[in-house]
Design a protein that fits this description.
The protein is mainly α and 141 residues long.
Length: 141
């Protein structure tokens, strides 16, 4: 008959004591709110990870969101996704061009490649315009 492990209220058991289990309380509500804000800004996966990095002095990141930049970021991510799509179509056209060697097919695929190149250039100009607009808005603030 096996002996049952005795469970203790803090998660330890008689045969396997856990010394690494720490519990803290922060009684002041202002300190709690400050800690929660810092945790959310840090981007840490868990509160435990956040507290551990703070206690051990490890580097951590702070993520801030600027509502004024959201339209810029949305437009930029839209342009990036369209550029990805065009890049895939461009690759498909190049592979088809290398596979099929008829003159008519080559001309059609080359016209597609020209169209894709023009679209990519147009998107690059839009990104430059967005970047310039962001700089102007930043200088005005």
């Amino acid at each position: 008959m096996k002996k049952q492990k005795q469970k203790k209220p803090d998660g330890r058991c008689a045969t396997c004591p856990r010394w690494d289990r720490w519990h803290i309380r922060i009684p002041n509500s202002e300190d709690q709110q400050k800690l929660i804000r810092l945790y959310r800004k840090s981007g840490a996966k868990t509160k435990s990870d956040f507290v551990r990095t703070r206690l051990l002095g490890e580097a951590f990141k702070v993520i801030t969101q600027d509502p004024a930049k959201e339209p810029y970021l949305e437009k930029l991510s839209e342009i990036v996704s369209m550029t990805h799509k065009i890049g895939m179509l461009y690759n498909e056209a190049v592979k088809a061009l290398n596979t099929y060697h008829s003159v008519a097919t080559a001309q059609q695929l080359l016209s597609k490649l020209e169209t894709y190149s023009q679209l990519l250039i147009r998107f690059q100009h839009q990104v430059v315009q967005l970047q310039n607009l962001l700089r102007v808005n930043k200088n005005e603030c």
